Amino acid sequence: MSNATGSNDHAGSGKPRPSDFIRDIVAADLASGKCREVVTRFPPEPNGYLHIGHAKSICLNFGIAVENGGRCNLRMDDTNPTREEAGYVEAIIRDVAWLVEGWADHCFKMKPRGAKPVVTERDGRRDYYMPPAENVPSAELANPRSAVVEPFYASDYFEALYDYALQLIRAGKAYVCDLSAEEMEEYRGTPEKPGRESPYRNRSVEENLDLFQRMRAGEFPDGARTLRAKIDMASPNIWMRDPVLYRIRHAAHHHAGDQWCIYPTYDFAHCLSDYIEGITHSICTLEFEVHRPLYDWILENLNLPRPLPHQYEFAKLIPSYTVVSKRKLVQLVNEGIVRGWDDPRLPTLAGLRRRGVPAQAIRDFAYHIGVTKYPSLTDIAVLEHTIRDDLNRRALRRLAVLRPVKLVITNLPEGHREEVEAVNNPEDPAAGTRRVTFTREVYIDDQDFMEEPPPKYHRLRPGGEVRLKYAYIVRCDEVIKGPDGRIKELRCTADLGSKRGGPTANRKVKGTIHWVSAADSIPAEVRLYDRLFTVPEPDADGADFRQFINPNSLEVVEARLESGLREARANEHYQFERLGYFYLDPDSTADRLVFNRTITLRDTWAKLQSRQQQR
RNA sequence: UGCCGGAUGGUGUAACGGUAGCACAGCAGACUCUGGAUCUGUUUGUCUAGGUUCGAAUCCUAGUCCGGCAGCCA
Predict the structure, then answer these.
(1) Could you say which residues 357-386 of protein chain A have a Cβ atom less than 7 A away from any atom in strand B?
(2) Would you say the C-beta of A421 is within 7 Å of strand B?
(3) Which residues make Cβ contacts (< 8 Å) with residue A32, sequence separation at least 6?
(4) DSSP letter (8 states) at residue A47
(5) How does residue A9 score in pLDDT terms, banded at 50, 70 and 90?
(6) Which CA distances in Å does A443 have to A45, A142, A437, A497?
(7) Is residue A182 within a helix (H) or strand (E), and if so which, with residue range?
């Protein structure tokens, strides 16, 4: 098939375009001429924050648009006024724009602010169509309060949906039902037993029309009546047993205001929203598979003039060592187990972003996990790998000491101070070098010295040698302890000829450790994050996931950073050498820096050590 | 036990009747002024039983196991 209009590069990763059963269908539809352009949509309900699971869906929907020169609409699936809030809409726009920026922003579609569907006559049939805004600068797409564009909203189609409901009634395919919720449940039957027809099922068209109009006019209380599709109460598929299309809810809507007291259900609104926007491929998760016959039934019974959208289902992401369900995320936030929706320990896009995870790494993750109909548990190590892989290439290297121990070089004069040259990124020579101040007294990390080290320990020990990165090889002569027995300082002598370019520079020593100048470094708060849960599936078998919370998911240390980090920038990713990747937190102030550890470096020593301990 | 869907190494995925491949994880080694990165090697797999075929992960039959569905949630 042709790539003429699409990118052959997946998600900006340089990897070949992916292939999966949905992309195969899209390619076949294009090849057969079943559709000429590809239009997808990402339809979150604005009642929570987007998370890594949504990222899979976003990458799928936007990816298909990018690869085929199509477009992808961001749509708020907001048909239930009692659950949804405008505040979430802004967060969703921000997260989506962040995730697709630089990759799919040209396919990312919103609509002119305030626009409603265009009404036309086609072949004597009334038609509603909601086109996207054209030529929108990407800054506007990323601005949740843009004056020119806004997302698509299912609630903008309420008038059209009402009209479609009227058409169904007139065709004798929908009726107003007076059964209470409890009665309806009873009439519905069970999966094994067919349901019974409602006594209101055979009302006349005129009576249905009258009643439905009065439902809209607010004549009945919540729950008094519903509009139902007239399909088949004996269907083996529960969703075909005269499903509810409209319910009465005397409640204001976050977007539509207070003009409605009847609201369409998901099943009625979703397929028609897709149609109205000209969606070709409506991609959703597996739990909607059994709804597909209803999706098709509604569209096919409306005599619509344009091509109909089709629904395809894939398995949603289940990541290990975290939870992703809206209810559980809300619980973590509301119970104060984490500090908010953007807590860096959460799998929310806002949390991952704050932690320092690049959007590219999330897109790479989506690429690696693939798309199938098999509901699998995905090892979070795959995400950790794509994060390290991306950050290794781009992060600026800096020196920082998390748990400082003083090291004094006795053969250097009091007040000695010099500058050494340090590499900014060994993966990227263009990143250049910088000067770092080296002094007689430095700090090293307490893990880099042991009085009685285990076998294979390559770092500093009494009488042992180690290289201070970019500076000298030092030998530990003496360990000075305070009255409490804790190490106060390490007294060392340096091999003064061992600096780069010096006569003994090429001497081999087992270990190289990082350091910062005692006098020239700056203090900072560093937040060390670990997985939020201690088990791969914290919510398996209906167990209370809170019992598996990792008590050490956050550790705060008072660190010392090389002084150049005073100018650390937000949005810049840093590697603190030998420690991991770090990212400036918005809690930082002018005189107090706060860093989040995005992720540690791969640590083969730690692995070796834990294996030794297990023996 | 109704309907819909699914099953390939430890995990995730590819192979579209023709050599079971890739990634992550693991293990072993090389290299290294990051125990990082990089490179090399390597352990482990087609749910079961029949059938069709020169040939089956793939097609057929039967079974097993797993997931989803009985909101006026999405």
Answers:
(1) 368-379, 381-382, 384-385
(2) no
(3) none
(4) S
(5) low
(6) 51, 43, 12, 21
(7) helix A181-188
% of chain A residues with pLDDT over 70 = 97
pLDDT (mean) for A112-141: 95
DSSP state of A17: P
Q: Residue A379 CA to B12 C1' — how many Å? A: 8
pTM of the full structure: 0.96
Contacts of A512 (CB under 8 A, 6+ apart): A466, A467, A468, A469
Q: How far is the CA of A110 from the C1' of B11 (A)?
A: 38
Question: From CA A328, how far away is CA A352, in angstroms rounded?
Answer: 17
- Burial class from Cβ neighbours inside 10 Å (0-12, 13-18, 19+) for residue A511 reads middle
Q: What is the pLDDT of residues A456-497, one digit of tens each?
A: 999 999 999 999 999 999 999 999 999 999 999 999 999 999
| Complex-level ipTM | 0.97
| Three-state secondary structure of A353-372 | HHHCCCHHHHHHHHHHHCCC
Residues contacting A604, CB < 8 A, separation 6+: none
Q: How far apart are CA A238 and CA A191, in angstroms?
A: 7
The 10s digit of each residue's pLDDT in A428-467 is: 999 999 999 999 999 999 999 999 999 999 999 999 999 9
